[in-house]
Structures are given as C-alpha cells and as structure tokens.
C-alpha cells in the first residue's frame, strides 16, 4: 500500500511539472528594443480583421485562425517604415507557443524569436540554429518542413508550429499592411 502510494505521488508530481512547464526565452520588449533600436519612432497599431478579410486569410492559409485582431509594432525613420513586428501564437504539442516576427518593408522575415513555450522536447525551436532558417524568407517561399526548413529532431510538432506561425505572420502582413496600403 505504501509503495503504491509512493508511485502515485511520483507520477502525480511528474505530471504536474510537465503540465506546468513553461520556458520564457526572450521578452517582447527585449526583442523590440533590439530590432527597433535604429528606428527614430515606434508606433503601435492594432488592426482588426473584418469577417471578409478573416475568411480570405483562412482560405489562403487553409487553417482557421482564432485571432480577430493583430497588434503591429512599427519602426519608422523619417516617416518611412523600417520594420513591422508582430506577436503570434501557434499550437504546439503541449500548449501554445508564442512567437514574435520582424518583417521588412518588402515582406521578408528580418528576425524571429520564441517568447514562450510549454514544449519539453520542442524547446530547441527557440535556438538561433533553428530560427535563422526563417531569416530572409518571404511568402514566396514554401516555408515547409523538409522543403526549405529542417525540423528539430524529436520536435516535429513544435517545428511545424514555427513554420505555420511564419507563414501566418507573412500572410497577415501581406493582407493587412501591403494590400491595405498601410505600408507607410
């Protein structure tokens, strides 16, 4: 009886520690400070999706998006936009993974980072070695595992979440900034 109880407690504590595991990689403010350091001015712009725009994005993405609005952090110098930053969440194996993207005026990924993740094996997607594959990618690129992105070994679901988030960030930028003529 005592042995069974000990095993139960051990399994319970292990399960709780896995479920409550969340790794913070970099703060949003630190990423923005790094990316927007050369910009003279930083604007925050929340863009709400109309139902029609959301349907267009979901049709192009072939994936339902739960968000109804997106906040862009826009770096400007002499009224010309330097870079757009956007925070997104994607589903991982153990919960949402929060990413931040910096997208240039011409629609390429300048940089990206993982802000928070509950992934255990997938924690390596937050490493530069994995993330640098996305730099310079645009919506013209496949952004797919085994095509132009190599997955982290043992973390296919987390790696897929990163590629989905990158495609989503570029698509949101394209639909909400580029086609709406808000690209300053």
Structural summary, described in words:
The structure is a single chain. The protein has 184 residues and is an alpha+beta fold. A 6-stranded antiparallel β-sheet has the order 1-6-5-4-3-2, with helices on both faces. It contains 5 helices and 6 strands; from the N terminus they run H-E-H-E-H-E-E-E-E-H-H. The longest helix is centred in the last third of the chain and has 23 residues, at 156-178. It starts with a helix and ends in a 6-residue tail after the last helix. It has helices at residues 2-19, 28-35, 51-61, 128-131, 156-178, and strands at 23-24, 41-48, 69-77, 80-91, 96-104, 109-117. Helix 3 (51-61) packs across helix 5. The protein has one domain. Helices cover 35% and strands 27% of the residues.
What is the chains' assembly state? single chain
Q: Report the order of strands and helices.
A: HEHEHEEEEHH
* End-to-end C-alpha gap: 70 Å
Mean pLDDT: 88
Tally of structural domains:
1
Sheet/helix structural class: alpha+beta
Instruction: Give the count of helical stretches.
Output: 5
Q: Rg from C-alpha positions?
A: 19 Å
Q: In terms of per-residue confidence, which ranges show pLDDT below 50 for 5 or more consecutive residues?
A: 17-21
Tell me roughly what share of residues is in helical segments.
25-40%
Shape type: globular
β-strand amount: 25-35%
Q: How is the biggest beta sheet arranged?
A: 6 strands, antiparallel
């Amino acid at each position: 009886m005592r042995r069974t109880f000990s095993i139960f407690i051990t399994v319970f504590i292990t399960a709780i520690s896995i479920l409550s595991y969340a790794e913070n990689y970099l703060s949003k403010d630190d990423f923005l400070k790094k990316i927007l350091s050369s910009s003279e001015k930083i604007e925050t712009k929340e863009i709400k999706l109309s139902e029609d725009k959301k349907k267009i994005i979901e049709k192009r993405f072939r994936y339902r998006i739960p968000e109804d609005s997106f906040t862009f952090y826009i770096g400007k110098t002499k009224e010309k936009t330097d870079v757009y930053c956007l925070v997104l969440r994607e589903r991982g194996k153990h919960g949402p993974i929060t990413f931040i993207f910096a997208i240039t005026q011409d629609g390429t990924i300048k940089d990206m980072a993982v802000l928070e993740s509950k992934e255990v094996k997938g924690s390596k997607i937050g490493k530069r070695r994995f993330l640098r594959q996305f730099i310079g990618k645009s919506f013209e690129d496949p952004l797919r595992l085994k095509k132009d992105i190599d997955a982290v070994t043992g973390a296919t679901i987390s790696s897929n979440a990163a590629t989905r988030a990158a495609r989503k960030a570029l698509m949101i930028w394209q639909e909400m900034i580029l086609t709406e003529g808000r690209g300053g």
